[in-house]
Amino acid sequence: MDSEGYTSNYQTRPLKRGSRWKNFLLHAVLILYSAIVAYPMLWLLLASLKSSRELFESPWGLPSPPQWGNFAKAWVEAGIGRYFLNSVFVTVVSMFFILLIGSMAAYALARFAFPGRGVIQSAFTSGMMFPVFLGIVPLFLLLRNLGMWDNYFGLITAYVAYSLSFTVFILTGFFKQLPNELAEAGLIDGCSHFAVFRKIMLPLAKPGLITAGIFNFFGIWNEYPLALVIIATDSLRTLPLGIANLLMVQHYETDWGALFAGLVIVMLPTLIVYLIFQRQITERLTAGALKG
Questions:
Q1: Are 273 and 210 in contact, with CB atoms under 8 Å apart?
Q2: Total Cβ atoms within 10 A of residue 28
Q3: What is the DSSP letter of 151?
Q4: Which one, of 183, 204, 202, lies nearest residue 193 by Cα?
Q5: pLDDT 10s digits, 24-76
Q6: Which of 73, 89, 270, 275 is deepest in the core (most CB within 10 A)?
């Protein structure tokens, strides 16, 4: 028995050493990758606290002293505050309708059998392969003829239309995983199909809604081409358009600190949202990979 135990320990020792080296190399690669990703953001934050002269004299050094006034210049004088609120409004309203319409469409495609379901599902899936740039000119002409150009109604409609394919694709998989017994129990208790969807299935699909909402938030918050084509009035511009406008305003042509401060303002909401929901994003993607 002792000899068997000795042989077993002797045989497993090289495997443990190999495993340690693999873990060490994996952690080293991940740490290096994290440093590569984090360094530009850290440099951007430091650059936003420097004057234009200091940026060119010591681009890699620490700000001395920190120019906190750059954020005030970007927020007030350059109008970044107004653009920020415009983006918040457009993003929140767009995500509300995207998740509302997308969840209802995904639930119908996942839970009910009806003629043409496969065609509709394929149409939603193929929509993810359609580049935005191919539809910009016809979309501009359509919105202008319908009186939806240069207003939030047209911009939000375009965002909802372009985001539905991805949202339906994500949520259909979540609704398919929910047990049929829950829906049948709700119908037996006297609930309508809509009540079953609203009171039972939709709360159970909350992880899917959060996942779809996060990715849609990232896409809409940073979206530039559609907003550039649809919005022309300066007071209606979203944050990406405001940052581009900041580059073209003559008063800020040499104020690089204010420009970098505006970029930090753009980056912060997406970074905060990711830090709050990173565990749910990782769990959902890992679960999908394991099930696949």
A1: no
A2: 10
A3: S
A4: 183
A5: 888 899 899 989 988 888 999 999 999 888 888 888 888 888 889 889 888 88
A6: 73
Q: Which residue has the tokens 């039972």?
A: 200
Pair 224, 241: CB distance under 8 Å: yes
Express each pLDDT in 172-202 by its tens digit.
988 988 888 888 888 888 888 889 999 889 9
* 266, containing H or E segment: helix 256-291
- What is the widest separation between alpha-carbon atoms in the chain? 87
204: how many CB neighbours lie within 10 A of its CB? 14
Report CA torsion sign: 280, 282, 287, 292: positive
Q: What is the number of other CB atoms lying within 10 angstroms of the CB of residue 256?
A: 19
Give dist(CA 183, CA 110) in Å, integer: 13
Angle at 249 between CA 244 and CA 254, to 5 degrees: 100
CA dist., res. 279 & res. 292, Å (int): 20
Task: Enter the pTM of the model.
Answer: 0.82
Rounded CA separation 111/193 (Å): 11
Q: How many angstroms separate the CA atoms of 140 and 101, rounded?
A: 23
- How many other C-beta atoms lie within 10 A of the C-beta of residue 218? 15
Range of weakest confidence among 8-17, 189-198, 271-280: 8-17
- Cα–Cα distance for residue pair 26/108, rounded to 1 Å: 43
Token representation of residue 87: 């983006």
CA–CA gap between residue 131 and residue 267 (Å, rounded):
25
Half-sphere exposure of 129 (CA within 13 A, CB side): 5
Residues 110 and 175 sit within 8 Å (Cβ to Cβ): yes
What is the C-alpha separation between 203 and 190, in angstroms, rounded? 19
Here the tokens at position 241 are 């358009």
